[in-house]
Amino acid sequence: MPKLTEDQVAQYWRDGFLFPLRVMPEDAAINLRKKLEDIEVRYAARDIPHDVSQYLRTSPHIVLPFVSDLALDRAVLDAVEGILGPDLMIWGADFFIKEADSTKVVSWHQDLTYWGLGATSDQVTAWIALSDVSVASGCMRFVAGSHKQAIVPHNDTFDADNLLSRGQEIAVEVDEADATNIELSPGEMSLHHGLLFHASGPNTSKDRRIGLAIRFVNPNARQEVAERDYAMLARGVDRAGSFIHFAPPAREFDTASLSIYEEIREAQRAALAEGAIGELNTYTASM
Ligand SMILES: O=C(O)CCC(=O)C(=O)O
User: Fold this and answer.
1) Does ligand 1 have an atom closer than 6 angstroms to the CB of 246?
2) Which of 64, 132, 143, 266 makes the best surface tag, with the fewest CB within 10 Å?
3) pTM for this one?
4) How many other C-beta atoms are found inside a 10 Å radius of the C-beta of residue 168?
């Protein structure tokens, strides 16, 4: 994929998102889906500290080389560089998997609400489709221009049908008619700003809906809530040094990656849990 054009960059800053960007051929994405599903099967009964679905839902790039490879993919980084500049780090990643015929949804929210990074423009999410992502299968919906406001109040619903950690929902009216459906084919990607209003509906299709959200930051981003924070350097240099760097995993669930996984989850949980009155739901990938 060529780097973003000036028009695409302008569109991102105007709307708060950009799509569809093809970052790999469809068959490559389908192969990655097979790798993911193979891991789900192989580790279903293996002795790893948490259920494999937890590792997939939250920060799979720390423990699974195929995920860190994808997050560090040149085409992905080229696109993100157009938005955040040449120095890039991966702050987080999440698989969002909705099973066929699933009632699971994602309520309207702004990502930055509970990450402790403040209302920054130095963070962008790259969301890569590993299946068909359509209105029927519960694609994301974005409200153009909504990233231009600050973090608005959210209510925690802790709704069991909600894939978000606190079931958080924007407390102000969101006009559904203003939303754009972000339909993607396998191997296509969308980019969205951390303040953008977005949501996604149930999967009424006969196939799983699978996407990997990769949370990029540049060195201007700062952790303001947790005592310390971590990031994987993806490109360029981190002159600010606010994040503790860690390397991509050498092998699936190796000892070093399992150990750093716990350290990072513990540190980031402090920001994610701030002010929460219920138990966070960060540990289930497949719904
Ligand atoms: O995959 C989804 O439906 C929602 C993902 C999301 O909210 C995000 O990546 O920020």
Assistant:
1) no
2) 266
3) 0.94
4) 22
Choose the residue to mutate in 58, 90, 140, 141 for probing ligand 1, maximizing ligand atoms within 8 Å of C-beta. 140
pLDDT along the chain (287 residues), means of 10: 91 98 98 98 92 95 98 98 98 97 93 93 98 98 96 84 80 87 98 97 97 98 94 98 97 98 90 62 46
* CA distance linking residue 266 with residue 272, whole number of Å: 10
Which residue in this structure is represented by tokens 């402090």?
Answer: 270
In 3-state terms, what secondary structure has residue 85?
coil
Pocket test for ligand 1, best of 17, 125, 137, 170 (most atoms within 8 A of CB): 125
Q: What would be the CATH architecture of the domain defined by 6-272?
A: Sandwich (2.60)
Question: Token pair for residue 66?
Answer: 């195929």
* Helix (H/G/I), strand (E/B), else coil: 152: coil
